[in-house]
Amino acid sequence: MAGSEAKERKILVAVDEGEESAYALSWCLKNMVAENSKDTLILLYCKPPPPLYPAMDGTGYLFSDDLIASMEKYSTELAESVMVKANGLCKEVNDVKVETRVERGDPRGVICKMAEKLGVDIVVMGSHGYGMIKRAFLGSVSNHCAQNVTCPVLIVKRPKSVAPNNCSQQII
Amino acid sequence: MAGSEAKERKILVAVDEGEESAYALSWCLKNMVAENSKDTLILLYCKPPPPLYPAMDGTGYLFSDDLIASMEKYSTELAESVMVKANGLCKEVNDVKVETRVERGDPRGVICKMAEKLGVDIVVMGSHGYGMIKRAFLGSVSNHCAQNVTCPVLIVKRPKSVAPNNCSQQII
Fold first, then answer.
1. Which of A52, A49, A24, A8 is nearest to A145 (CA)?
2. Which of B41, B36, B32, B40 minimizes the C-alpha distance to B3?
3. Which of A23, A45, A32, A16 is nearest to A129 (CA)?
4. What distance lies between CA B114 and its chain's CA centroid?
5. Cβ contact (<8 Å) for B32 and A32?
6. pLDDT of residue A109
7. Do the bridges between strand A153-156 and strand B153-156 make them parallel or antiparallel, or are there none, so unpaired?
8. Contact at CB, A154 and B153, closer than 8 angstroms
9. Looking at A8-115, which runs of residues are DSSP E strands?
10. Rounded percentage of chain A residues whose pLDDT exceeds 90
11. What is the mean pLDDT of residues B76-102?
């Protein structure tokens, strides 16, 4: 790879608020992206789908419009915060061309769909993918993507001994 | 990555007689290994374990010593053939430092064990991993490794439209 012959690659990195996805992004920047390359890093964040059937909630409060608006605001702010953090990491480690995408839905479907739609060359993600709580309900996002995405999938597991965002023990 | 700052990385590539693993190796050579890098590619081939309980076979022929010797010979020749092919691919695409390892046992366990033992930086494998027939019995090798190997795992799926060993549609 790399060198002057290298064409532009599209690398889709699934990011979330977890430390594992930050580690995966760091690892990718240090191991996949060559300096001065023409690669484009597409950071994909997946917002949770809106709660279903608000009218069926009996409390008249839990799923009120106010609460839904608050959840939406929180979700949007969280997405922005994750993207700012991820962008910062990109600038810090490797000044690569970065695009950001925020989509909504089940991360398993969203990642597969976006990988296909954007015609990316590789998908990079943490092994847990999209947080431990969601994983408990949805199953392993990375397993699903490894099986269903047609391009290569790189699954990065954060070593337990490594502090967040620090992959200096990996090769630079 | 890459550049003069790059340290030596160990990249473990699981190879077998299938076209998918050849494609995974090609993809790795073109997308993961920088020219003139200090990376070492470790090609790992896993021979099937010897048949169990030969004495319990009622036919007195199927698991005779002769047949076991023939199977072992075939298995060894197959391993050599795969390694010659894989080595040729490495020389052809990218003149990287290559080591070969032939181990015996369940590929799922062997890959995880060797990744740990050799302290590799990344494991690369085809998504089916170790042939369709074995996969039917053993389950997905790549899924198992993605869950159990502690370092990053790159799972490469061969596009249906791509001829064996040809990943020219990928980035060079």
1. A24
2. B36
3. A16
4. 11
5. yes
6. 92
7. antiparallel
8. yes
9. 10-15, 40-47, 97-104
10. 37
11. 89
Distance CA B131, CA B108 (A): 12
Q: Is A170 on the interface with B (CB under 8 A)?
A: yes
Closest-CA residue to B27 (of B90, B85, B81, B84): B90
**DSSP secondary structure letters along A140-164:** -HHHHHHHH-SS-EEEEPPPTTSPT
Q: What is the ipTM of this complex?
A: 0.78
Joined together, the tokens standing for residue B158 give 């061969």
Dihedral of CA A104/A108/A109/A112: which sign? Answer: positive
**Fold topology of A10-156:** Rossmann fold (3.40.50)
Q: Looking at the DSSP assignment, which residues form a beta bridge with residue B158?
A: none
Q: Does B151 touch chain A (CB under 8 A)?
A: yes
d(CA B51, CA B67): 10
* Amino acid of residue B171: I
Domain ranges of chain A: 10-156
Of B8, B150, B157, the CB nearest to A152: B157
Which amino acid appears at position B61 of this protein? Y
Lowest mean pLDDT among B37-41, B53-57, B93-97: B53-57
Put simply, whether A153 touches B (Cβ < 8 Å) is yes
- Tokens 């020389």 correspond to what residue? B91
Residue carrying structure tokens 């990195």: A13
Name the token pair of A66: 């106010």
